[in-house]
Write a structure and sequence with these properties.
Elements (H helix, E strand, L loop, with lengths): L16 H6 L8 H28 L9 H29 L8 H21 L6 H41 L13 H4 L4 H77 L4 H24 L3 E5 L5 E4 L1 H6 L4 H4 L13 H10 L5 E9 L5 E10 L8 E7 L1 H48 L6 H27 L8 E4 H13 L6 E6 L6 E4 L1 H17 L5 E13 L12 E11 L6 H4 L19 H11 L3 E7 L3 E9 L3 H11 L8 E5 L3 H13 L3 E5 L2 H11 L3 E7 L7 H11 L5 E5 L4 H9 L4 E4 L4 H13 L6
Parallel strand pairs: 7-9, 13-14, 13-15, 15-16, 16-17
Antiparallel strand pairs: 1-2, 1-5, 3-4, 4-5, 6-8, 9-10, 10-12, 11-12
Helix pairs in contact: 2-3, 2-4, 2-7, 3-4, 4-5, 5-7, 7-8, 12-13, 12-19, 13-17, 14-15, 15-17, 20-21
């Protein structure tokens, strides 16, 4: 500690990307190491794919739609690609041990090889009709960005695009055939092989999961290191400031003491009568030193002194308390015995480095007297006497700070999930709209044709799968609070029967489903889709809890209870009418330690890939929002009882709703539809034409405005997608208002927030349809808009 103690060069508290990367073992790997990792992962995938191709070659009867000659070529190509990956992996491993481990070759070779082999393999399946290439490309980009950087990833994507375009041009010129692996389309020909689906699906899923794991691991490490680095720098800066102030105080005190001593010596030499005054002054100095010692004892930060033998000679109370000991017990013990074994070498190295001057800051783990560990920040300051390893230790227990950091990281992850859910909802719900609407049309077409019973079953199965996908999307949006809830009258028994009907198609015959519903009609208000989704989710959980079969019972009754009796935190509340819905299964039950966590988001006891952990959390939040509750009682091997309480609504509202629902949904008006997704446009047009309407289709917002300007006198209503090319649905709606404000407009969207809805409704919007939707909901929304317009215009 010299004259320049108060001057320090502080590094910026905001970490740079290079500093973040230096804290991540995956990001800081040399290029050859990353190449070896990718070579190993992709080699495993290619081996798996080659085994599937060999199996297909040996069992042609199971895949009759595959061209055996093309299969042979692709199998030989797989051997060649596998050899290239093995060669690249061996070269990468060899380079990782030498001086060429950061060569640019290893940044680009795995990406380029991956891009070329992916397109070539995809060519055999059909690049534009089988999603294998796109799924693997997306997964590859996600994994490549954090590993190899933006430049190498873009070059790989460019190579992929160039090769794919080349194949496409050659196919269009009839130089090479399209999808040569297939003799015909297995779906159209009706002989789609389960083995082929399992092979293709498992290959794509495994590759995507591996790429996703690498990407999420790298990103998570960067986020964690960034938070730690910022927090540590802020704390280190505070420690430096406090230490500097302490050194300045000591320096000033020493100077004062030296001046006083000199003054007293001079006074003794001149006059003995000043002895009394000097004694008083010395007493004051002693009291001041004692106050300093007491201040050190009262300090929040732990302070200790370690002698040349590595043993504690001085310890304040704070240092002893964080080790759950007392100073008398710790003084004389070896200092490193109070450090976790895995950190002792690092601390010892830092102590020996003190001989070169300065101080050392490090994070480690301390040991308490009972042997448990805790997170510790240590500042090591060498002895002013420069006596070898003799030093001061300033310590701070940061266990709570680390817990707060983890909580903040969790909050950040929740926010990211919310953004992700909102981003994918629109496109995913477009696909689900096409699937559900097409399935519903097929069910209507085949329901009165016994000879098409198998086709009807397939259509019902498709609708069931689409409904479950829509429920999962809705759960994500509910969890992220991105999708507004509906407020409508719900016939509880009708919703339960609808959920049970969907559930039965996914149960095996060893599970019996029984419904014991109250004789009277029970009504409540809320979002029917979310209520049915919650009941269906409870049924699926019960199914998974009964792998060997059992009985699932759903029952209802009307009860009158105070709110606090069903778990609502309200004291002295009057009796309230509730609907009680009980879902009881005879399954394996829930362990006691899991019952307290069962409603936490993303908590699930199911194996990986078989549960999101969102169902119960979202349903519990929904019930709480409408004034209800959800309670679980379970014992291992004795089953589970799920009790739902929801407010009861009076019968008068139901009668009004029944009268409104009895009207006809068909019509003969001309409707303008703007939808950029061709599949959604096709099924919506079919639904409307089957209901008697005439349709003017438009593929984007600009075309919709032009068509409306030419035909607005004939158009009775318009149905617009919210997100479209050229112009959005909201922009098209405003243009329609300028041309003819009397034409009602209904918007469709897979993710539209409340502010958007309120602003558009204030401008005259007639209705909103959320994707995916049923035929009845779509026709009802249009009928409402048409009937709300005077004289039909």
């Amino acid at each position: 500690m010299g004259a320049d103690t108060g001057q320090r060069d502080l590094k910026p508290l905001e970490p740079s990307f290079s500093e973040l990367s230096s804290h991540s073992y995956l990001i800081t790997w040399p290029a050859a190491g990353k190449s070896a990792l990718v070579s190993g992962v992709v080699s495993g995938l290619v081996i798996y794919a080659t085994v599937l191709l060999y199996y297909a070659a040996q069992h042609p009867a199971e895949v009759p739609f595959i061209n055996t000659a093309a299969l042979k070529v692709q199998t030989q190509l797989s051997y060649g690609v596998l050899g290239l990956w093995f060669l690249l992996g061996l070269v990468s491993l060899a380079a990782a041990r030498g001086r060429f481990n950061d060569s640019a070759f290893f940044l680009h070779a795995p990406i380029q090889l991956f891009a070329i082999s992916n397109v070539v393999f995809s060519y055999f399946f059909g690049i534009w009709t089988v999603p294998y290439a796109w799924v693997v490309l997306i997964g590859g980009v996600l994994a490549s960005l954090p590993l190899f950087g933006k430049k190498a990833t873009l070059l790989g994507a460019g190579t992929w695009t160039l090769v794919a375009a080349t194949f496409t041009v050659l196919e269009q010129l009839d130089v090479v055939p399209y999808a040569p692996l297939f003799n015909d389309s297995p779906i159209v020909a009706g002989h789609l092989s389960l083995h082929f689906l399992i092979g293709m699906g498992s290959t794509t899923l495994i590759g995507s999961l591996l790429c996703g794991i690498i990407f999420l691991t790298a990103i998570d490490q960067l986020e964690v290191r960034a938070q730690d680095l910022r927090a540590n720098r802020a704390k280190l800066s505070d420690s430096l400031d406090e230490l500097q102030q302490s050194h300045e105080t000591i320096r000033v005190t020493n100077a004062e003491l030296e001046a006083r001593v000199e003054e007293r010596v001079a006074e003794l030499r001149t006059a003995n009568e000043q002895l009394t005054v000097e004694v008083v002054e010395r007493k004051k100095a002693a009291e001041e030193i004692n106050r300093l010692r007491l201040a050190m004892e009262a300090a929040i930060e732990g302070v200790a002194y370690v002698d040349i033998d590595g043993r504690f000679t001085e310890i304040n109370a704070a240092f002893a308390v964080m080790h759950q000991s007392d100073p008398d017990t710790m003084i004389g013990t070896v200092a490193d015995d109070w450090i976790a074994p895995e950190d002792r070498e690092v601390v010892a190295t830092a102590v020996y480095d003190l001989e070169r001057g300065g101080k050392r800051e490090l994070a480690s783990h301390g040991l308490r007297i009972d042997g448990s560990s805790f997170s510790l920040e240590l500042s090591l300051v060498g002895s002013p006497r420069h006596r070898s390893t003799e030093h001061h230790r300033f310590a701070r227990d940061v266990t709570e700070q680390e817990a707060l950091t983890a909580k903040l990281n969790h909050g950040t992850k929740m926010e990211a999930i919310g953004r992700l859910a909102g981003g994918i909802a629109h496109d995913f719900n477009n696909l689900l709209t096409a699937i559900l609407s097409a399935s519903e049309l097929l069910e209507i077409r085949f329901q009165d044709s016994p000879e098409h019973s198998e086709a009807l079953k397939l259509a019902s199965t498709s609708r069931m799968a689409g409904t479950r996908a829509a429920e999962l999307t809705r759960q994500l949006l509910d969890f992220a609070r991105l999708k507004p809830a509906e407020d409508e009258l719900i016939d509880v028994h009708a919703s339960i029967e609808n959920s049970v009907r969907l559930l039965r198609s996914s149960l095996n015959t060893s599970i019996r489903v029984t419904t014991n519903l109250a004789p009277e009609t029970l009504l409540t208000r809320g979002d029917a889709a979310r209520f049915e989704s919650g009941i269906l989710n409870l049924g699926l959980n019960a199914r998974d809890a009964m792998p060997d079969g059992g009985e699932l019972t759903v029952s209802t009754c009307k009860v009158r209870l105070p709110r606090q009796e069903i778990g609502i935190p309200e004291t002295n509340s009057p009796l309230v009418d509730f609907i009680r819905v009980e879902v009881v299964d005879t399954g394996i039950g829930i362990e006691e330690e899991n019952l307290t966590k069962i409603f936490e988001p993303f908590f699930t006891t199911k194996p990986p890939g078989q549960g999101t952990g969102l169902g119960l959390s979202v349903f519990d939040s929904y019930l709480d929002g409408i004034g209800g509750s959800l309670e679980l009682e379970s014992e291992p091997n004795k089953g589970t009882v799920c009790s739902i309480h929801i407010p009861l609504t009076m019968q008068a509202e139901h009668l009004k709703t029944e009268q409104e629902s009895s009207r006809s949904l068909e019509g003969g008006e001309v409707l303008l539809i703007a939808e950029d997704d061709e599949r959604v446009m096709t099924v919506i047009s079919m639904i409307l034409k089957n209901a008697g309407y005439s349709v003017i289709p438009c593929k984007d917002g600009g075309e919709a405005v032009t068509a409306f300007a030419d035909n607005h006198e004939q158009v009775a209503a318009a149905l617009l997608d919210f997100r479209m090319p050229v112009m959005s649905g909201a922009e098209v709606f405003r243009e329609f208002r300028k041309i003819n404000p009397n034409v009602p407009v209904v918007l469709m969207s897979g993710n539209l927030s409340d502010p958007d809805l309120d602003g558009l409704k204030a401008q005259g919007l007639s209705g909103i349809v959320s994707k995916p939707c049923t035929r009845k909901i779509l026709l009802s929304a249009l009928r409402d808009a048409l009937e709300a317009t005077p004289n039909g215009l």
